[in-house]
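In keeping with the milestone schedule agreed at the kick-off meeting, the structural modelling team has produced records for the first pair of proteins. Each record is given below as a sequence line and a structure-token line. The laboratory manager (R.T.) confirmed that both were archived under the project's standard naming scheme.
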Amino acid sequence: MDFSAGEDMRPQKLPKRIARRIVEHIISHDLGPGTRLPVEAELGETLGVGKNTLREAMRLLESWGVITIRQGRNGGPVVRSPQPRDVREALTVQLLFSSASLQGVYEARCCIEPHSAMMAAGRLPDTGIQELRSSVARMRDFVDDTPVFLAENRRFHELIAAATGNVVMQAFIDTLKAVFDGSSAGVNYSRGVRLAVADAHERITDAVASRDTARAAREMEIHLREAGDYWGKQGRIRLGYVTWEG
């Protein structure tokens, strides 16, 4: 495999530069998820680096979500496709060190998610709309099953984020939703509140399905405001700070 590059590599940054060269190689050669990279000895020889440098580069690539290191006889580095949610841990760490409040996370969601619903209304294909309707139906079917209901609640917002077609927005929305969605701060949802959430999701879906961008944004804004009011009544936003998820 050709990992050649024209830049000079300074020793103190060698592992990172090696990792970047491998990323560039994967992208330029369109290596899809599941593609095996050469074994350590071959990679090291091709790149002209020692075992320790290469292993540090591999650790960087794994932390970036670029590869998975499989163990065993047929193990080694395997290409994976980084997902927007891969930035979640890094952002959470930054928010933890900044003593970020849940109020701040909530405000960020209020800024971004209505716009994402607006974009979804203009871009989501009919098959995607069916996924949204399926999500709403599943929330109603499992309204008394807390884990399933909360998972479907998150999935709905992920579907809206993905529908924007903008991976930058998707990364931020998925991360902010994971960092704080109410349940992560200990908010308890009554059955009536859960049904109200499903109703709100249905109104958003109807707006997206009708391609009414302004209405989609407005319904998402109302949904988040209602959620924020409920979280605020329980004191979870005002007093809370970002913590590790799960």
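The second protein of the pair:
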Amino acid sequence: MHARTKDEWRQLVLSGRRALTPELRTAEDRALVALVTQGIAGGSTVCAYVPTALEPGSLDFLDALRQVAGRVLVPVTRDPGPLHWSEFTGADGLADASYGLREPTGPVWEPDEIRSAGTIFVPALAVDRRGVRLGRGAGFYDRTLGLAASDARLITVVRDEELVSELPEDPHDVRMGWALTPGSGLVPLGDR
């Protein structure tokens, strides 16, 4: 039996996400909303993301963060490279953007604005117990996370079955410190 490649993992996870019932998806999203503010300092800056239809989380997830954090920044995509950032001010402040994403319409900050965040929520298709994250393959986060403060909490958000024992890893992959899952909450990864 061969180890799965990243592309094989991507196909497997996306197939599983497409098969989710709307009821299970809603229940998992609600669970994440209840868990997302664990350890978030009042008034702090948090980086997160606007979930797509196939990603865990919802706009309620971002609204919950806004109620605690002083500022919630979400990515704004440009050409391939590090992500730019803009403040999430609510659903009314979002517009359709490239790659099937929704992005804020307000002021946009340079990629190094990520340094202001004490906690960074990172989307993923899967993550392993060592902290190796499987993204979509475009490399936006791998190019961005190196700009974060060295003590920032890197938390990837996945479904419970997407927290796996081992994924393939490339030298440029940035490891996560925690996984947030609907059933297990905040799970330390690696040697934490």
